[in-house]
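Morning F.,

Quick status update on the modeling queue. The single chain you submitted on Monday has been processed. Sequence for confirmation:
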Amino acid sequence: MRKSYTFGIPFGLQRESGLFLDITEVSRGIDCNCICPACKTDLLAKQGEVKLWHFSHSTAVAGDCDGLMEAIRGKIIEVINEHRVLGFPNLLAGDDGGPVSLNEVIGSGSMFGGTADLFVKVNDLCVAVFLDRDRSISAKLTFDHLHPSERVAALRIDLPDIEYEISQVQLGRRKTTYSECIESLIIDETSSREWLYHPLMHELESEPLQEYRGREPSEEGPLLQRLADCKMKLPDILPGSHNALVRLQQDTIVCLCRLTVRAYDIAQTDEFPLFLRYFRLHCLENSEHVSYERLICWQEMISKTQEGQSLTQNELEYLHEIVRIALYNHRLNNVSISDVKNHDTGKESGRVEPQNYSLL
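C-alpha cells below.
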C-alpha cells in the first residue's frame, strides 16, 4: 500500500449539513460536530500549536479505515457538484487543457466494467469520472466494445496526486486551505488526471496523445540518500590477518544496522518498514553474524508475498543491497570459522597452510 503523505484526515463530514469541512472551518475538538466519511466514527478536530492540524477518530477504530482518501474523494465530488466546472486535459500532447463548464452532474454508476464515482455531461458527451485511490482502475476497465459514434468517455483523476498536494498545504508549503486547494486542483488544473477513453481517440491514432504525468514525486530522495550514506565497498580479496577479517565482518553488521534503522523515515510504502523490522529482529543473529537460514526466508517473503509485491522498485533495490551485504557477512563468517579450524589443525601437525580469503 502506498504511504500517505498527509497526517490524519483533512475533511470531516458535518452531521447536520452533510458538507465536507476542512480543519480550518470547524471548532476545536469534539465540538467540530463531524464524523469520519469512511467509518462514520465521531471526529476530533486537532488544532494545536505544535502538531499539524487534522481530524482524528475520537475512539479506537476496529479494522482498517481509509478516512483520508474517502474524505478527499467526497470533497472532490462536492466541489464538482457545487461549481459545475471540471478541468479537462487535452487529448493531444503539448496542450494542458483547462476548465470546462458542465451541463449536468449525475451520481455514481456502472460503466466500462467499473463503477464511476460520478457522470458529467458536456453537450452530448457523457464522461464517466473515476476517482482512482490506488491507481488500479485503468486495468479494470475495457473499451474494446465501443464504437466511435458512441458519445461516451472515461476520465481518471489520480487521488494519490491530490493527497500529496493536500500534504503540502498541511506542511505550510502551499499558502491556502485544504478546501481551496481541492477547488484549484479540480477546477483550474489538469495535471492530476488523464483520459482513459475518448471517442476522438479513434480519429487521432496517428497523433501524439497526451501522456499522464503525476505531480506526486517518487520520494526517492531519503531512500537513495540513506543508501548513498551507507554505501559499502565489499572487497573480493580479503585481508590476510584474522583481526582485519573480524573488523570487516563487524563493519558489515554496522552497515546493516544503519540501513535498517528508522524505516518510516525513508519508506515509500506502508509495507517497507515491516520488512526492515523483520530483518532486524530475526536476521541479525548477534553483533557479528547474519542468520543465513532466516535471510533466505526473508528473501522469499520479499519475492513471494503480496506485501513484497506492493513495494516500489526503489524499495526492492534497497532490500537487494541489504541482501548483498548480508550474504557477504555470511561468507566472511564461513571464512573466519574455516580459518580457525585450519589454524588449529596446522598447529597440531606443525604445519600452517597459506591463507586465501578470496570470495571469487
